[in-house]
Fold:
Amino acid sequence: MKQSQLFTKTTKDALKDEVSVNAQLLIRAGFINKEMAGVYAYLPLGLRVIEKIKKIIREEMDAIGGQEIIMSSLQPKGVWESTGRWSDEVVDVWFKSKLKNGTDVGFGWSHEEPITEMMKRFLTSYRDFPAYAYQFQTKLRNELRAKSGIMRGREFVMKDLYSYDVDETRHLAFYESVKGAYMNVFRRVGLGDITYITFAAGGAFTKYSHEFQTITEAGEDYIYVNKEKGIAVNEEVLDDSVLTELGVSKNELTKVKSAEVGNIFNFGTAKCDDMNLFVTDKQGKQASVYLGSYGIGVTRLMGVVAEHFADERGMIWSEEIAPFAVHLLSLNQNEKAEEIYNALNKAGVEVLFDDRDANAGVKFADADLMGMPYQLVVSEKNIRDNRVEIKNRKSGAVEYVSLDNSEIVRYFGKK
Ligand code: ATP
Ligand code: MG
Structure:
């Protein structure tokens, strides 16, 4: 894409009312727009990051048998009443409204109840299992505080997966396979070595649930970790019984700040029982259904990455989720740069081409702020030396490649 045609622009100054680092950086770089507190629009560069994160998650969900759907944002009151979760005392983040005829509706903050209601149509016999459905959905939550930028939105993108099974062993095996798939996701977005499967408060059925907590100053949670043993416990559940169970003592654990990027929850049969989802087993008798619910905060994840991998000059995206792999900077050399741009595009390399009529200082500052992994500089001097300069945004390392389109394509091809 040519930067001269991109409708967004970078801005030097941060917004006064925006306290979070992730939103400051993303707003300044033109990735997002703040509509109001906790509500952000995703602009072309920001959307490309979201789509790449979604692609990674989609691949991992499909690999464990997930089938993608999209549930609705408007939800009927009845399904939530059946489990007691329509109540504002029980769920304190509801946005609710009424249809013109007076019917109550809720805006989807989660989807366990509506999807379970829907599944009643399809899951009737033991033969219908397992069923694994997931979606990417904009959740609406009336959060009390929204000071963490896109890491805590009142409107945010979540990936939620729901598993249904009549066989408890297979249900628990799937729960374990989600742990693996989730760690793959966090590794692929670059957070593998600072993300821990964390023991957290349990639910109706199990003593513990599992959160995926990324160690970062940007987070709102505190966890206790032992890196050597790979153990992490949420502050909320840290008591003698969990320590005994895990075989660690408190003095072996270090308290760190973290962000919950995902969590997985075993409802047992409680939710489906409450909602009257029963099926017939092999003997023709009524059987209960196990439900698992598994979330990843897609936009929160983007915020964690934006903030965590940043320096004083701006953001630093990894190749897997960067809006573009290469930021091609033409320093008054648009003709030569355009040839390189065309060659890279043809080879399938994603390039943002800074063809604007702007000076080198502006172009370098913008490129550093936006944070594409590679900056490819085409200047008069480089052309004279018959080469291009390729700077790695993360390491700062500079390499030179001869001014030959196939050489340049090969450089990015081998990455
Ligand atoms: P938190 O304790 O941070 O409020 P939660 O327990 O309410 O999270 P879930 O309902 O399990 O979160 O949602 C699944 C995932 O969605 C979370 O692990 C988190 O990554 C993300 N998430 C939750 N609330 C928000 C929000 N307000 N903005 C952005 N992402 C969120
Ligand atoms: Mg919450």
Summary: The domain at 3-308 is CATH 3.30.930.10 (BirA Bifunctional Protein; domain 2). The two ends are 20 Å apart (CA to CA).
